[in-house]
Amino acid sequence: MNAQIDTDVVIVGAGFAGLYMLHSVRGLGLSARVIEAADDVGGTWYWNRYPGARCDVPSMEYSYGWDDELQQEWEWTERYATQPEILSYVEHVTARFDLRKDITFETRVTASRFDESTDTWTVKTDADEQIRCRFVVLATGCLSSTNLPEFDGRDDFAGRSFHTGQWPHEKVDFTDRRVVVIGTGSSAIQSIPQIAAEAGHVTVMQRTPNYTIPARNQSLDPKEVKEIKANYRTWRAKARDATAAFGGHRPRVDVSAKAISDEERLERFEDRWALGGLGFGGVFNDLMLDPESNALAADFFRSKVAEIVEDPELSEKLSPDTVFGCKRMCVDTDYLATYNRPNVSLVDVSETPIERITAAGVVADGVEYEADDIVYATGFDAMTGTIERIDIVGRGGLSLRDKWSAGPLTYLGLGVESFPNLFLITGPGSPSVLTNMIASIEQHVEWIRDLIGSMTDQGLSTVEADGESEAKWVDYVNAVAGLTLFNNCSSWYLGANVPGKPRVFMPLIGFPDYKVKCDEVAAAGYDGWVLN
Ligand code: FAD
Ligand code: N01
Fold first, then answer.
1. N or C end of the chain, less CB within 10 A?
2. Which architecture does CATH list for 7-145+381-531?
């Protein structure tokens, strides 16, 4: 190869992943360009501006750990940072590391084609630009393409429509308005209490009730922050040894829900409920492994719904009968209690789906629910959706969409056979969405950086996942999922929320083992990869 290139690396996306990738590539002395569809940085935190949006991994952990000065100087104010606070953090990082000058905004990558004669990629954009480069990094996000169901008559609606994942930049005023919210996932659960506090009436259309744990959000205690900052590096390292890449400072519980008395179990559930947050899932070691233990957690949750929701009929409707934790657990502030408000009602659309949207509202089970506003909290075409929206063509004219038609195939979630020098960040087959994603992003970026650096030092042109390693890896990801209860529901982890999407459990369960595997692969000279 000796083709003229425009830049060494094209990075698609300017969220947490793309920004750190850019900084890391610069550190290797290589050039990079980031292409971002939005008009500014932030990714998830740029797009999801709905009322109540905030992280549910604690702020002190849901932040970059790769620069000690950065983590020492930044002051988070709450246990769970709000969307505006996270966005200002991202903007701060962008300015501090002078990243903006290498980012092209308001431009979408539409295609990318590998040229075998020169070992280069040509990346095409919707601005009609073609950029030739050695490496492409897809930092496109796992939850960045909205899922907007094709309800009949959707465009007939005469009022305002919003999707939580593409929320306007200016405040949306719901005062005195009749609002229909479709969906009861994390975005709905965060936004419904805030919308209800303002609106005339909120009608929630629920297909599946969800498990949600109180956030118990609070201002951060300066003393606690000081203690963490005094040992931030160690603290972060411990997080990387935790199953979901956060909460590593807390002792691991190694007890089955079935191994103790009913009284002790209830006490433990209550303690975790009082503590709040996703840590609830770690109260016992087998909630996602043993159906009976799982049922005990589900029972406990239902008892809480009955305790909080005053109307028994409503409480029944809000009580899930699905596997606890099988869909992404939600974390809320006053979600269940919001149903005690006189201006909130719930429509069960599980057996009688939404029939159509009219000019005046939403029709379900023959009833038209009139609305001034519809909020689609209907989620995302997760993990693969955004990648497959780009027309990616690798060796031999193979299209990635075709290769993935029965589900995503990757090696380590980082690369794909026949697609040399193309990397995915938090791709399917990596722990990704089952973790504190910033920790996962950092681990991926650093691994890719080291590989590109090593290739550059050795004068190598291409790296490509080996087909056999890829096949074994996919089997391994499936086998691990098969040991758990994660396959037992219609979750977006399985692609079940998008009609026609193959049902494959996409992320790998267990961050620490994965990290060790990646380190071993690198130490063995990139075992399972073909380097030339
Ligand atoms: P993103 O932030 O999604 O950024 C990807 C960027 O790529 C986007 O800006 C997009 O516009 C751009 N892009 C995509 N395709 C193209 C293209 N073809 N051309 C140009 N640009 C493109 N994770 C946690 O761990 N903890 C949390 O508490 C948490 N809270 C969340 C709350 C919400 C509301 C949502 C939706 C997700 C949350 N997540 C959370 C997951 C979150 O997505 C990740 O934590 C993280 O922000 C992902 O960063 P990223 O850079 O990988 O992707
Ligand atoms: O999306 P979701 P989300 N008719 O897919 C319903 C992260 N996140 O944006 O369950 C009727 O979870 C659908 O019903 P069902 C987090 O990883 C984090 O809320 O498929 N309803 C469901 O209730 C999260 O998991 C936070 O039966 C329809 C809802 O819409 C991920 O992003 C906050 C429907 C979609 O829920 C996605 O969350 C926000 C239809 N045709 C997001 N189609 C934090 O708290 C879909 N639904 C950190």
1. C
2. 3-Layer(bba) Sandwich (3.50)
Ligand 2 atom, smallest distance to 349 CA: 11
Q: Which helix (H) or strand (E) holds 137?
A: strand 130-138
* CA dist., res. 455 & res. 230, Å (int): 37
- Looking at residue 335, its pLDDT comes to 98
Q: Check residue 251 and give its pLDDT.
A: 82
DSSP 384-431: SHHHHTSEEE-GGG-BHHHHTTTS---BTTTB-TT-TTEEESS-TTSS
* Cα 450 to averaged position of ligand 2 atoms, centre (Å): 35
Architecture field, domain 146-211+325-379: 3-Layer(bba) Sandwich (3.50)
Nearest C-alpha to atom 6 of ligand 1 is from which residue?
13
pLDDT of amino acid 2: 54
Which ligand 2 atom lies nearest to the CA of residue 332?
45
Which of the listed residues 57, 437, 492 should we mutate to test ligand 1's pocket, taking the one with most ligand atoms within 8 A of CB? 437
Question: Which of 12, 140, 435 to mutate to test ligand 1, by most ligand atoms within 8 A of the CB atom?
Answer: 140
Residues of the chain falling short of pLDDT 50? none
Quote the Cα angle for 254-259-261, to 5°: 125
- pTM of the entire predicted model: 0.98
Q: Where are the domains of the chain?
A: 7-145+381-531, 146-211+325-379
Is the CB of residue 44 below 6 angstroms from any atom belonging to ligand 1? yes
